[in-house]
Amino acid sequence: SSTALADSACRLLSDVQAAHEREVEELWKAQAAEIEELKRRLSCVELADTSMFKQEKRQFFGFVKGALKGKESPEYKQLYHYLLKCFTDADNNFDGRVGFKEFEMLIEAAAFLPRRFGYAPSTPELYKTDWERLQARMTLFNALKITSEGSRERKEEFITFAKWLEYAVGHIAEKAKSLQDSDMQGRLETSKEDFRAFVIAAAKSRHSREYKELYHFVLKCFTDADTDLDGLIDLNSFQSLIDIAVIAPRRFGFAPQSSDMYTSEEQKFEARAKIFRSLDPGGTGYIDFDTWLHYIYTHICEKTAFLGESGAVPAIVAASSADSTYSRSF
Fold first, then answer.
1. Are 218 and 186 in contact (CB under 8 A)?
2. For each of the chain's 330 residues, which pLDDT tens digit applies?
3. How far is CA 138 from the centre of its chain?
4. What angle do CA 62, 66, 68 make, to 5 degrees?
5. What CA–CA distance (Å, rounded) separates 24 from 41?
6. Kind and range of the H or E element at 79?
7. N or C: the chain end with fewer CB closer than 10 Å?
């Protein structure tokens, strides 16, 4: 009987220990879930805040999808504040309203995020002339203007934040219907076939979504190499810039390893220094972003000739001029 009692006590102790382990495991899982949710919310805060510039395409994708789940989602709250910031930044006379001239600025500010990832066309891509843009935006502005209190016909020459919010959220929801899960991750990093297709599409047209994604990739390479944060790249930083930019094509075998190109670090440094000097004909000791962009995009386009393409470099898209529109129309 003493043996049976001991066995019973052992079983009881074992059951208690197992129950405790399950409780600890469940607690750990719950804490891990809370941590992941906190990370997700923080990433949303960053996306809709000043650090949105640093975010990746997949985070923007998740942000939009989350914002459309309802007003209680953290993403919607961040979207609300982002759209509010766009509205108040455009309200340059601080009257709580946005007139037509301010409306132009409002539209451009709000379009920054989707344009950054190629989900919205730029102004020059949408409109052939400033006059065409003016007409289209005036039509939209007139549709959003509020009706004066006590009158069914007369409309004031401004829009309110509530009307802007209603329109913007509805517009985003409509556009989000076309988003596919396959859009979440940039094709620069998925597979060799995707990388090849991405580069060819980016090299064919500066209007393409791929070109815009490439633009921001190239810009990120530049800012990562700009360690002293002066907007310029010197010769030593240029060495780092090349190392950063070449990671993506080397991942899929589209660029040779340094060891296959150079017999020594000195030879590699001098070869890159020669390129740098060609980009800095004035001998200033620095290059800026537009010089880097022109060089690397030309280089990429020329390399597509080895992929069966023409290798030609598309012309730069002309910028639109809001100033010329205002001087002619008001």
1. no
2. 566 666 676 677 777 677 766 765 666 565 555 545 444 444 444 444 444 444 567 777 788 888 888 899 998 999 999 999 999 999 989 999 999 989 989 999 898 888 877 788 888 888 888 889 999 999 999 999 876 555 444 556 889 999 999 999 999 999 888 776 555 556 677 788 888 999 999 999 988 888 988 998 899 999 999 999 999 999 999 999 999 999 989 988 888 899 899 999 999 999 999 999 999 999 999 999 999 999 999 999 999 988 888 888 888 866 654 444 333 332
3. 28
4. 125
5. 26
6. helix 74-90
7. N
